[in-house]
Amino acid sequence: MMCFTIILQVQFGRRKEGVEFYEIYYGRRQGKDKEWSHQACFFGDMYPAGSNIYYFNVYKTQQICRGSQSSHESCGRDRYFEYASPVTSTIKVPWILLILMFPIMGLGLYLLVGLNGGTEKMRRRYQKIDEQLLPLLPENRKIQEKLQQKIPKAGNISSYIHRNAAYPVYQNTDVTYFDEAAKGLEAQLQDLAKAEQFIFMEYHAIEDAEAWHRIQQVLEDRVKAGVEVRVFYDDMGSIGFINTDFTKKMEAVGIRCRVFNPFMPGLNLFLNNRDHRKITVIDGKVGFTGGYNLANEYFNLTHPYGQWKDTGIRLEGDAVRSLTVIFLEMWNAVSDKDENDTDFEQFLPKYPYEAQQTGFIQPYADSPLDNEQVGEEVYISMVNKAEKYCWFMTPYLIITDEMTHALTLAAKRGVDVRIITPGIPDKKQIYNITRSFYHGLVKDGVRVYEWTPGFCHAKMSVADDCMATCGTINLDYRSLYHHFENGCFMTDCDAVLDIRNDLEATMKECREVTEKYRVGRSAYLRLGQLFMRLFAGLL
Asked: 441: which residues sit within 8 A by CB, 6+ positions away?
C-alpha cells in the first residue's frame, strides 16, 4: 500500500539583498520507511499587507534530491536541482491565487504542470544532445556583421537569437513563401519525391487521412529507393487524428517513427510541455516550416471552422543546416530507451549551392527547458525596433504584460501596430480569453482585425518592410513559455514583402473590431473578461 502526504514547511526571518524572503518545502512520503520521494523549495519575496496577510512573489524553485527523513535537512542544503527559473508575474500570480484558494489541489497541479520543465532527467538529456549538436552550427560572424551594418535594428535581433539560442544567421539561401498551406503541401510532395539520402519530418499533429496518405505514398517510394525516412509527432497534438498503432504501421513500411511524450495523465511530469514544431528536411538541402500540421483541415480538405488560413516557407541553401539540427535534437533527446545517432555530421552535408537571393535567413528554436523565452523576445524586439509598422497574425492572443506593454508603447510612438485573429474559433473558451485582451490593446492605439472567412492558424509578423518571422510560435502562453517551438527570422529578402502583402490582402477579408472593443463593453462583459484574464496564464 502506498501512502502520499504533502508536507509544507515555511521558514521566515531570512534576508537577501535587504528583502524578506521565505522557503516552502513540500514532499511526499511513501512506504513503511517514510522515504522522501519528492521535495522542493520555493524562494521569493514576502511583503506584509495587513494583519496576518502577506503578498508573495515567487522567483525561484528548487527540487531537492531523494533522501531519508533524517537526511532531509542536509540533503536540502547540499544537493538540489534548480527546477524552474524566474517567469513573468502574469504567470506567477494565477498560480499563487490558485494555491491560496485551493491549497492541496493548487499545489498538486503546480507540481505536475506549473514547474514547466519536466523532469531533471529530461533536462539533462536535452543538454547532453545540445552539447554535441550546437557546436556543429557555423558562427557566420562575417554575415552577422554585414547584417548589423546594413540594417542595424534587424542585426540586433539576429545577434540576440545567436547569443541566446545558438542559431546563426545565414545568407546563400533562397526562401519561398506560401500564403496557403495547400501550396506548401504541393511543394513538399515535389521535393520529397526527389530525396536521395534522408527525409526528416517533425510535426505537432498528423492525421491518418487523405493529406497524409499522399505524403506517406511518397515516403514509402523513397524508402524503397534506399532513402532513410524519419517521422516524429506529438502524441497529444495528434489525439483524435491517428490510432495508437500508427507508429507500428509506419515501421512496417520502413519509415522510422517516434512519438514525443506519450500521453499518460497523472504519470507524466513532462505532460505540460508539448512539441509544437513543424519541420521537414530533405537531404539537408531543402527545408520547410510554418504554421500548418499534416492534417486535412489545414489544407481545406475539411472545414470544421470555416476556411482555414495557414502559411509556410521553403528554404533551400545553407540555412537548412539549422532546421536539421533542430530535428536531430528532438529525435535524439526524446527518449533514453531508443537507439540514437552517434554521427550527426552525416546529416549535415556541405554541398555547393548558389542562391539567387541575397537576404539574411535565421531559423531558430525555442525550448521550455531553459530560462530564455526566445519566441517572445523576438516578437517584443521587433515591436520595440519598428519605426513605421509592425503587424501580426496569430490564432490565439493570450499575452504577458511585457508583450502588451511593448505593443501599446509602439502604438503610442506612432507605429502602426495591427493584429489579425480568427473570425471563427476552434476553441470557444480560448477565443473569449483572446477577445478579453482586445480592450487593453486598442485603447492605446493597437488595431485588431478578425478574419471573417474562418480560422487563421498562421503565426507571422512583419515590420518596416525589412524583417519578418514565420513559424510555429503563437502569441499565447503555451507557445511562448510551455512548448518546444521553432521559427525563422528573415531580413532583406523577398519573403518579407510577400508576408506583408499577404497580411494586407488578408485584412481586406477581415472585420476591424478596434472601435468595438475600445468602448461599449457592458459591465457584465468587463467582469467576465476580468475573471478570464486572471487565470489566462494557466491555460
From this structure: 404, 407, 408, 411, 419, 448
403 vs 386: CA distance, rounded Å? 14
pLDDT at residue 84, as a whole number: 39
Cite the beta strand spans of 267-408 per DSSP E: 279-282, 286-290, 307-309, 312-317, 360-366, 389-393, 397-398
Taking residue 429's Cβ as centre, other Cβ atoms within 10 Å add up to 10
The grid cell for 458 is: 498562421
Predicted confidence at residue 213, as pLDDT, reads 97
List, for the chain, all residue ranges whose pLDDT scores fall below the cut of 50: 1-85, 117, 266-267
Residue 527 has what pLDDT?
Answer: 63
Of 317, 326, 328, nearest to 228 by C-alpha is 328
Taking the chain, what is the end-to-end CA distance rounded to the nearest angstrom? 35
* DSSP state for residue 338 in the 8-state scheme: S
d(CA 99, CA 35) in angstroms, rounded, equals: 25
Asked whether the beta carbons of 11 and 23 are under 8 A apart, the reply is: yes
Instruction: Give the Å distances, CA to CA, from 209 to 219, 240, 296, 301.
Output: 15, 12, 7, 10
Q: Kindly provide the b/e burial profile for residues 365-392, where b requires at least 16 CB atoms within 10 angstroms of the residue's own CB.
A: bbbbbbeebbbbbbbbbbbbbbeebbbb
By C-alpha distance, which of 256, 206, 205 is closest to 229? Answer: 256
Measure the CA–CA gap between 494 and 373, rounded to whole angstroms.
Answer: 28
- Annotate 152-168 with b (16+ C-beta within 10 A) or e (fewer): ebbbebbebbbebbbbb
Cα radius of gyration rounded to whole Å, the chain = 24
b (16+ CB within 10 A) / e for 55-83: ebebeebbbbeebeeeebeebbeeebeeb
> Do 397 and 473 meet the contact criterion of CB atoms below 8 Å apart?
no
Spell out the residues 6+ positions from residue 266 whose beta carbon is closer than 8 angstroms to its own: 112
Contact between residue 400 and residue 373 where contact means Cβ atoms under 8 Å apart:
no
Give the DSSP per-residue string, 143-201.
Answer: HHHHHHHH-HHHHHHHHHHHHHH-PPPB-SEEEEEESSHHHHHHHHHHHHTT-SSEEEE
The pLDDT, as a whole number, for residue 9 is: 37
Question: Distance (Å, rounded) from C-alpha 275 to C-alpha 326?
Answer: 12
476 contact partners, CB below 8 Å, separation of at least 6:
394, 396, 397, 398, 399, 539
Q: How far apart are CA 171 and CA 364, in angstroms?
A: 15
Grid cell of 143 as nine digits: 554575415
Model pLDDT, residue 338: 80
Residue 124 confidence (pLDDT): 86
Task: Quote the pLDDT of residue 172.
Answer: 98
State the DSSP code for 241.
Answer: T
Q: How far apart are CA 311 and CA 503, in angstroms?
A: 11
